[in-house]
Every structure is written in C-alpha cells, then in structure tokens.
Write a structure and sequence with these properties.
Layout lengths: L1 H7 L11 E4 L3 E4 H11 L11 H11 L9 H9 L14 E2 L3 H8 L3 H13 L4 E3 L7 E4 L6 E8 L1 H5 L1 H41 L5 H18 L4 H25 L10 H28 L24
Antiparallel strand pairs: 1-2, 3-6, 4-6, 5-6
Helix pairs in contact: 3-4, 3-8, 8-9, 8-10, 9-10
C-alpha cells in the first residue's frame, strides 16, 4: 500500500515526504499522479439505471486532440471503456477494466515498453488511474447474478466521468479557436491578394521604388510566418501586419493614378475648337443663304431682266 511504501522510505505513515513515491507494488507514482488518485477516490457513481458510459467516452473523444496526449490514447481509452458495463458507473461500484498486458500490446500493436509508456502518460494526464494488486497484476471478478464487480485490479476509468465537464469545455474552446483561425486565414488570404493585385497594377504603370520592393519582401515573409502559426493569438499579429502593408501599397497606387480630366485637350484647345466650329458653321450658313438668294429661292420670283441692279441687297436685312 501507499502507507507501507512511505514507511519503507522512512516517511511517516500517510505522509508525502518523498517527491517520487511507489504504490501498489512496484509502480512509481508522482505527486501529480497521487492527486489524480485522490480525485478518482472521490468517485460516487450515478443513480441506478442512469449511467451511459459512451457519453463519457465521447466527451473525452472531442477533447482528446487538444490534450497533448500521445498517439493511440483514444484507441486505448475506447477499448477499455467497452470492457465496462453501465452498472460499473453506478453508486456502490467503480468502472475498472482488467485486460491482460499481452492482450493490450496485441490490440495496440505496440511493444511492452511502448505500452507501458502510453499507460503512464495517460495516468499522468489524469485520464485513468491504475489499481494494481500488491504484485502489480490485473484481474477482476463479477457477481454472476447481478453482473456487478466484486473485486478488480486494473484500469480505473472513473476520472472520465469526474472530468466530463472539463472535457466538454476543452472541446468547446477548441471549436471557438478553430472558427477564429479560419476567419483569420481568410483575412490573410484577402490581404495578400489585394497586395498582389496592387503590385501588378503598379508594374503595368511602370512604377518601382525601394519602398515597394521592401513592402513586397515583408509581405512574403509575413505570409510565410502566418502559415506557420498554430494559435489565433499569433496569427492575428501576422494578419494585422499584412493589412497595414495592403493599405500602404494601395496608397502608392492611388497617388500614382490621377483622375482623368474631362477635357483631354485642355481648356484653351477646347475653347479654340468650339470657337472655330462656330465660325465655320456661320460661314457655311452664309454661303448656303447666298446660294439660295442667287437662285431666287428667297422672296417672290422675279425675271432676270426686271431685277433692280442699282444697289446690292443685304443677305440678312435689318
């Protein structure tokens, strides 16, 4: 027992003088693992007929990618939970699974050392605790009539139920983070495209400068850095920096391209053109009127030999 092991190390009964402890035979137990054991000991179980072990498993499944656990973690926990029965999670019982070590190794496809390392990692993370007999063996017995566990040593899975709320919170926060990262990646893409389009237009206009080359170099570095960000707190900084450079290059483009004047040939040319046109029109009208008069199309028709030739007539009488 823990108290016996402490005594063997010279610690008082029930004390925790040593930072590294040994419990249940030869298993080493850290203070962190001891804390998880104490929490598992507080397991009370659910009322009769209300336990649904798969709900605890699925809460863990949703959180597992964000807990920093080694490979095969969910595969192992899923396998262990399926050894239990609903009554194991009820009041007066405890959900313990006791598969043989060799069977576990075969199921996971791992060596003995790899399997032991995985078991220990999940203990330290508070996913389950080990309940070994003094010789470090796993075994159990069920009442053939009720199906309840009467004695068992192995994987105690009660922490899955105790920490269900924590796992749900981790999964919810992870979903919020995923949504934030998705939005930031979209902003990053839009900013980069806007910079590329502005740079292309500046090139068409034949514009180049040290400031432009510096801006394009910084854009390339920020895009690369943003692609390596794994947290929104980091990515938002890269996106903000890209958007500042987008605004800067768009100002360059705006300063280069001036509004087109409504009179392309200038005010003087425009006035001259209008005046000339008016003069030409007046002359045309005068010639046409003169021709009409010479042909007798103005006023009553008079024979040529009766025309008054004493004075020339004004084309446009007062």
């Amino acid at each position: 027992t823990m108290a016996q092991e402490n005594s063997a190390h010279g610690a008082p009964q029930g004390g925790f003088a040593q930072p590294l402890l040994r419990a249940h035979g030869c298993r080493r137990v850290t203070l962190e693992m001891r804390a998880w054991l104490d929490r598992a000991d507080s397991f009370k179980g659910l009322p009769h007929g209300t336990a649904k072990p798969l709900t605890f498993l699925y809460a863990f499944k949703d959180a597992e990618p964000y807990l920093g656990l080694p490979a095969h973690a969910y595969k192992l926990v899923d396998w262990l939970v399926r050894f239990t029965k609903p009554q194991d999670w009820e009041e007066g019982s405890r959900p313990i699974a006791w598969p043989e070590a060799r069977r576990q190794e075969e199921f996971l496809g791992l060596s003995t050392r790899q399997t032991q390392a995985l078991n220990r990692a999940l203990q330290e993370a508070g996913i389950f605790v080990m309940r070994d007999d003094p010789q470090g063996r796993r075994y159990g017995h069920r009442d053939p009539r009720t199906g309840r566990i009467t004695r068992a040593f192995g994987f105690d899975l009660s922490l899955l139920m105790e920490r269900q709320g924590e796992f749900k919170k981790v999964a919810t926060e992870a979903q919020i983070e995923r949504n934030r990262m998705k939005k930031l990646r979209q902003q990053k893409t839009l900013a980069r495209k806007a910079i590329d389009q502005a740079a292309e237009e500046l090139g068409v206009q034949g514009y180049d400068s040290e400031d432009l080359q510096r801006l394009l170099q910084e854009t390339e570095e920020l895009v690369k850095a943003g692609s390596q960000c794994r947290r929104s707190e980091e990515l938002v900084l890269a996106v903000q920096a890209l958007e500042r450079r987008r605004d800067e290059i768009q100002r360059m483009l705006s300063d280069l391209i001036k509004p087109v004047e409504t009179a392309p040939m200038g005010a003087e040319n425009s006035t001259h053109s209008i005046s000339t046109t008016l003069i030409e029109n007046d002359l045309n009208h005068t010639v046409i009127a003169a021709n009409d008069c010479s042909r007798g199309r103005v006023g009553p028709s008079v024979p040529d030999d009766h025309q008054d030739r004493s004075e020339p007539k004004h084309l446009f009488p007062e």
